[in-house]
Amino acid sequence: MNPIVTDSDPTGNPDVQPKQSKLVPARDLITGGFSKNGDLISYVLTGLLLGLLLDWVFGTRPLMIILWTLAGIAIGFFRLWKGSEELEEQGKARSHGA
Predict the structure, then answer these.
(1) Contacts of residue 68, Cβ cutoff 8 Å, sequence gap at least 6
(2) pTM (2 decimals)?
(3) CB under 8 Å to 13, separation ≥6 — which residues?
(4) Residue in 41, 31, 44, 89 with CA at minimum distance from that of residue 70
(5) Which of 12, 28, 71, 91 could form a Cys-Cys staple with 5, CB 3.0–4.6 A?
(6) DSSP per residue, 43-90
(7) Over the range 1-24, which residues count as b (16 or more CB within 10 Å of their CB) and which as e?
(8) What angle is formed at CA 33 by the lines to CA 65 and CA 78, rounded to 5 degrees?
């Protein structure tokens, strides 16, 4: 009895799973590779705007602006740090650990 050969498995091995196509393109393709800097700026601006809005709603000027801008800076740098770890791991994988 011959195994069924599919287009995704030319060898006829039934244990081989077909490759899943990505429905969402890679982030770097969308942003052009500037996403790490864009993340930092967007988190800081989001914190600033959220602080302005909350100060306007609660009348606590400048408390919320300061708090949320600092939170945006902290989150932005954290994401930048995590992104640099990912780049370092990719570099090690490309150089095969050398």
Answers:
(1) 47, 48, 50, 51, 54
(2) 0.61
(3) 3
(4) 44
(5) 12
(6) HHHHHHHHHHHHHHHHT-TTHHHHHHHHHHHHHHHHHHHHHHHHHHHH
(7) eeeeeeeeeeeeeeeeeeeeeeee
(8) 40
- Residues 80 and 39: beta-carbon distance below 8 Å: yes
How many whole angstroms separate alpha carbon 69 and alpha carbon 44?
A: 6
> Alpha-carbon distance 25 to 22, whole Å?
7
Centre a 10 Å sphere on the Cβ of residue 87 and count the other Cβ atoms it contains: 11
| Run of H or E including 35 | helix 35-58
Provide the residue count of the chain. 98
Question: Considering Cα of 65, then 67, then 70, then 74, what sign does the dihedral take?
Answer: negative
pLDDT per residue, tens digit, the chain (98 aa), is 555 544 555 565 655 555 555 666 666 666 656 667 788 899 999 999 999 999 999 999 999 999 999 999 999 999 989 888 887 888 888 877 55
